[in-house]
Each structure stands twice: as structure tokens, then as C-alpha cells.
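quick one if you have a minute, typing this from the bus. theres a chain ive been looking at and ive put its sequence and its fold in C-alpha cell form underneath. please have a look and point out which stretches look like helix strand or loop to you. anything you notice is useful, everything is just below.

***
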Amino acid sequence: MKKITNIALVIGGTFVLAMSVEFFILPYHILSGGVAGIAVAFEPFFHVDETLVANVLTIALLCVGTLVLGKQFGIDTILSSACYPIFTTALSYVAPYVPITVEPVLASFYAGLLGGVGIGIVMRAGASTGGMDVPPLIAHKLTGLKVSTGVMITDGLTVLIGIMAYGIDAALIGLVSVFASGIAIDKVLSIGAGSNAKSVTIISEKWKEIAEVVMRDMDRGVTFLEGEGGFQGDKKKVILCVVSAKQYSHLVEIINSIDDRAFTITTDASDMHGEGFTYASSTI
């Protein structure tokens, strides 16, 4: 049931993202982040249909990301990346008949709001929309560059190209979309979460395998605590791990796939200090 729910969330979130692109970003030439922003920035230079460029980039980045980042990335991204071109192409025929007329600044705000909600919904399902998140992730894997820094560089280059094509005013309007998107993503991910992080205690005979996968696939550190069974007095390792709210469902899947008899205790964590919480980390 949870798997069906996650699939529905990914499809629904991708549809909302496609709406932001076809109803606001492309018609108003909003220099937002993502493949749509790239398509808008390059259109004056190459005069290629923006929806087509965004769709081709989405599929191409999915393929490159899967090759470089691994099969798990492809699994987490393929559904959204497959639905995105279908939705944007269909909505491109509908958009001209939808009478939405607003000021460019409002269009940028609504684009960011809708897009952020869509991306947040997909993330809540433990998946990814891929797109322009791929280059920063690849740079992080190959060079160690923080993903947050890579995203800033990618968005900065998009804005720079946009300034050359549309002028400084268009770039400033595009920033409204970027900020609105970030706020919307954060709000969607925090619904029902209680906090921005989870502290998870894991007791399992397969503690070593679980710890290795968490550190390798989630780029999160773990701490081993010494435990003792109350009934038999046997010594055992206990894993303590703190993850962001959006990573929690992925952590649970990892634990269940390795040891479905593992005992876990999860609590909301707050006032975190250190790598990944009080300063930038690739996994937040």
C-alpha cells in the first residue's frame, strides 16, 4: 500500500511541477532553476521550443546520472523523469487556452510556489525529480564539491546566461521563483514531521551491513553504541543515526531491506550542531 501511495505522490508531484513550467515559467520566460530555467535562458540564442529542450535535458540527465551516480539514483528518479515530458507536452497544448494573466513578478512567485510544492511532494515519497540536481551531484561524487555549492554555481550560470538574453530585470524577477520554490519545498517536507531531522536508534544482528549501506548510499555518519540484552545479557552493537526529515523514509527502506526484524526507535531531533545541520552538507 505504501509503495502505491509513493507512486501516486511522485506522479502527482511531477504533474504539479509540470503545471508550474507550462503555465508560468515558459509563458512568462521566468529564469528559475531547473531544466525549464535553462530552456528559457537558451531560447533567444538557439530558438528551439522550450518544452522540447526541457524534456530532452530531463531524459539526458537521467541517463547520465544513472551511469555516474549508480542504479539507485536511476530507480529513485526514473518515474518522475518519465512522467515529466509526458505532462509538459500535454499541458503545452492546454496552456494557451488557460486565461492566466498576471504581472511577471507574481508569475515568478506562483511558478516557484507550484514547482516547490511539486518537488516537495516527490521528495516526501523518497524519490527525486532529477533534472539540474544531477550536475551538482556528479560534481560532488567526482570532486567532493558540496552539492549546495554546486547548485549555487549551476543556478548562477543560468542567471548569468539569462541576463545576457533578457537583461538584469528578468534575472531579478527569476530570483523570486527560486526563493518561493525553496520555501515551498521546506514547508511540504515539514508537514507532519514535527522537526527537520530524525534521530534513529537501530538494534539489529546485521548492524554492520546496515551501517555500511547508510554511510555509502545516504552519505550519513553513524555512531556505534555498546548494548546489552536484558534477558540473556548478550553484548550487541546499537546504531545511532541522525537524518534529515526527507531522508527518513529512505533510511527505513534500507533497514527493512537488510533486516526486517530490526528494532528501531525514532524521535524528532532539534537543535542539531555539526556537519550537515549547522553548516552545508550534500545530503540536506
Q: What stands out?
A: The radius of gyration is 21 Å. Confidence is low (pLDDT under 50) at residues 278-284. The longest helix spans residues 2-25.
